[in-house]
Amino acid sequence: MSTTPAAPRFDPTDRAFLHDPYPMYRQLREHAPLSFHAPWDAWVVTRYRDVDRLLRDRRLGRVMEGVQKRPSNPAHDPFDRIQAGSILELEPPDHTRIKRVAHAVFTPRHVRRLGERVEALCRAQADALAARIEADGEADLIRVFAEPIPVTVIAELLGVPDEDRASLLPWSKAIIGMFEPERTTELEDAAVRAAEEFSAYLRELVGRKRRTPGDDLITRMTEVHDADPSELSEDELIANAILFLNAGHEAVVNVLGNGLKALLSHPAEHRCVMDDRGLVPAAVEEMMRFDTPLQFFERFVLEEMEFEADDGTVHAWRPGTKLALYYASANHDPAVFDRPERFDVGRDPNPHIAFGLGIHYCIGAPLARLELVTAVNALLDRLPSLHLAQDTFRYVPKNVFRYLEELRVSA
Questions:
Q1: How confident is the model at residue 2, as a pLDDT?
Q2: What percent of the chain is helix, strand and coil (3-state, nearest 5)?
């Protein structure tokens, strides 16, 4: 007599899950690929085909009239203001309008011009990592190598002066804490303070750019706003400058941290990349798939809808229903990826969704890929015998963002 396996108990606060969520994702894909998690008041979606279809479905979005993502709290107003004008939070027609402005100032030509600067920066940080290892025997790759690269690149792109950059990373780290479904009051308070301080700084910087324009995004967005505030309000300017920093920093740092841990944990794959540098772009894509830093993305049902899931079940959802679309689980779905638990630097095809899909596909993806490929090449050039200097790894206990506390290496 056969029995149906019991649905796995999804507990996103469990320490074992936070350390390694992939076994639970596998159980969910197999036995409960679309299930309701009451503490989050959200449907958890784990199969690739479901996530793919829902990301592209225009009946879902980030905002809708009369639907609150979380209980209204006047104390959170500074944070809510920087979210309200962000292209990450908007739907057409406002999303289309803001994205048009973003594309006008975030041009491929401008990204290409950054190529030489990015390469010089990556090589300088590889030298700094080598010097720290030589002096101390080992070093934290994340702090010495991974973090400075994207923060410097996005600060230069935005036009933030050198002397003002020290606060950018703490502000970014604090702000993203508000996106965690299991956040504490302390995380909320820190996010609100950071949003208030960052906004005040950027408003002052906008004034400086008006007086002394530069060849940077803040200047260009300020010029768009001043020419026609209906095309880009000052609040939207501030919100998207903060988004560019947060998204641009978090994606690159955490792909480098998680991805280089994976590469160095697989010596045969490391040797493949060392022997054939043409594999570096594919290796970077595999880093993004194998241990995806942005684990899931929330979307909301905008209208009454039915959805037939990959397992054949049909779901009827009301407006305001929340979905947690698990990129990280989708990127390990064996229906799409051959031997998904294997780290394969030559994986082809590799249709991962680490940057999302649909209208909210990451606008900074080309810049992130440029930084990642350049950084990995610089590291392989400067430290060909780089290896891990730790056997156990600690991840920051968060659900939305997955990243290491440190990655100690030697050479």
A1: 35
A2: 55, 10, 35
pLDDT tens string 265-305: 999 999 999 999 999 999 999 999 999 999 999 999 999 99
Q: For residues 216 and 202, give the distance between their C-alpha atoms in angstroms, rounded to a whole number.
A: 14
- The pLDDT of residue 4 is 42
Whole-number pLDDT of residue 13: 93
Beta strand pairing call for 42-45 and 322-326: parallel
Determine the pLDDT at residue 71: 56
**Amino acid at the residue 228:** D
Residue 148 CB coordination number (10 Å): 18
Q: Which fold has domain 15-410?
A: Cytochrome p450 (1.10.630)
Q: Confirm if 377 and 256 have CB atoms less than 8 A apart.
A: no
**CA distances for 135 relative to 146, 391, 410, angstroms:** 19, 21, 11
- CA–CA dist 242, 158 (Å, integer): 10
How far from each other are the two terminal CA atoms of the chain, in whole angstroms?
57
CA distances from 361 to 6, 85, 278 (A): 35, 17, 26
Provide the 3-class DSSP secondary structure of residue 376. helix
Question: What b-and-e string marks burial along 22-43, b requiring 16 or more CB atoms within 10 Å of the CB?
Answer: bebbbbbbeebbbeeeeebebb
What pLDDT is attached to residue 3?
40
Residue stretches of the chain with pLDDT short of 70: 1-7, 63-72, 104-108, 110, 360
Q: Cβ distance 237 to 384 under 8 Å?
A: no
CA–CA separation, 307 vs 46, rounded Å?
Answer: 15
Please state the pTM of the whole predicted model: 0.92
- Count Cβ neighbours within 10 Å for each residue of 204-214 and write b for 16 or more, e otherwise: ebbeebeeeee
Token output for 319: 């407006």
Among 162, 165, 220, 132, smallest CA distance to 406 is for 132
For the chain, the domains span 15-410
Judge whether 322 and 41 are in contact, CB under 8 Å.
yes
